[in-house]
Design a protein that fits this description.
Length: 170
């Protein structure tokens, strides 16, 4: 009897775990899917991007039934050979109002329910290199963490955290 009860409880607990909310609150997309690593310095609008660097567009879609507010993104870039890491914390610079009007702000960024954020061009530079290695082909793993909350900028309802992974081309 005790074994049957234990078995039943185990099965029920596994089914409860799998019955949790499986729908993602956010969908994230990188374009290109695997950015190419550039190994030369680059200057744009007086900003110098140090080698190694990558550039890509990043877009977030709110799949939740409520507004979400994104305060920032954290990119952790890991050199696949040396395992050296570099972390980038990026603030979000636009708010979408109820009317869909874009307002320039430093923080945070509200996304209406079931809406897309405008794709943003992101540059990550000064990525970790191999010491004393010439003409290396660099490959990186990138972890993106979204920081924010469910609700408006002034009325948070609950914590929001989401993680996305992608790799660069070698």
């Amino acid at each position: 009897m005790k074994k049957s009860l234990a078995m039943l409880l185990t099965i029920v607990s596994f089914s409860l775990v799998s019955c949790g909310e499986s729908k993602q609150l956010l969908k994230m997309q990188v374009s290109p899917i695997s950015p190419f690593v550039l190994d030369q310095d680059f200057t744009e609008d007086k900003k110098v991007y140090k080698a190694n660097w990558i550039s890509f567009k990043f877009q977030i879609k709110n799949e939740h039934s409520q507004k979400i507010t994104i305060a920032g993104l954290r990119f952790t870039v890991t050199n696949n050979s040396s395992k050296a890491e570099k972390v980038f914390n990026i603030g979000v610079g636009q708010i979408l109002t109820e009317e869909g009007i874009k307002v320039k702000e430093i923080f945070p960024n509200e996304l209406l329910a079931k809406s897309n954020e405008e794709a943003r061009e992101i540059y990550l530079d000064g990525l970790p290199k191999e010491e004393n290695v010439q003409n290396a082909n660099y490959s990186y793993s990138v972890k993106v963490e979204v920081r924010g909350w469910i609700g408006t900028a002034t009325e948070p309802v609950g914590r929001l955290s989401a993680t996305y992974f992608f790799n660069t081309l070698q």
